[in-house]
Amino acid sequence: MIIHQLTEDTPLKINNMANCNKLFLDFNDKLKLTSSKIRRMITARENIKTKIAEYFKDKSKYSFSGTWIQGSYKMDTIIRTNEDTCDMDLGVYFKSVDSEVTTATVMDHVFKAVENVTSTTPSKKSKCIRVIYKDDFHIDIPVYHYNSEEHNHPKLATRYNGWEESDPKDFYVWFNEKSEDLPQMKRIVKYLKAWSDNKKGKFPSGLAFTIWAVKHLELNDRDDVALYEVLKKIKNDIDYSWFLPMPVTPFDDVCKKLSDQQKSNFKDALKAFIDDAKDALESKNQLEASKLWQAHLGDRFSDGADEDTDAKEAALRRISEKVLASNAYSQRSGVLNDDTLGVKNKPHTNYGG
Asked: Its domain of life (predicted)?
């Protein structure tokens, strides 16, 4: 146990020769949705909104007030999965719903409104209706009852537990106010989601990763270092407690649905990622470092340059000795070495410490 603890507490010794920040920025670009997919999703969203508005326009027990995009698409933390799929959350809002109407009934009516939007029958989830655009994307439709004169927060329809307070707009505001570098925050969330997408088995939700990233991100010029530090702090959190509260209404535990086995599997995967991330940051070879990152983030993470930094350092030491000994020659290419075909350098004095 003592040896294990000492190993975990070994200080990080970053080797700049294996700096993978540019590879991470390239990886972020590969996680972005294509412009054609975005156009299809926008068209689908507008079609769904039109279908719902038409369906409810003559229903006296409901007052449809509009839709609002929420979740990762809204916050720009959405990713393309390895299968090139993604999802959008489109909240449907009613200003009034007759008191005799159950939440399950409201959701069933929304289901009927969008039932024939695609050739695939929508799914009835416990807290939304899922419209499936096969092999492309899906749109989740949570249903809300919100009248600002009566409610402090929107009420989310659930199939089995009635109306529950839930405020996706508050979460969006919270997320956007919590970072001095919002672009890096978004990238870190996307890297965590890409890791989850690349691994088998159930991981914590994208919502959990978002909250952890906001809670733990310390700004860094390098995304690889920033990600490593976030991973370590997530591990510290769950070693102490798995309780991760939603920072806004309804303030519930976003990890409560994970089973003990799923938690154990995630902890093992997290420990392996942290160990490999540390080795990558301390590596003297960018290709070697990139392979360590790829093991967790997948093949879309590019290979680094295969350079032997030990050999480069040794070569620099050798030529510096030649320079100081007045045995160095400048070649036409500008390279310094001991090839006497070049122009001999003037004597140098080392004034360094």
From this structure: Bacteria
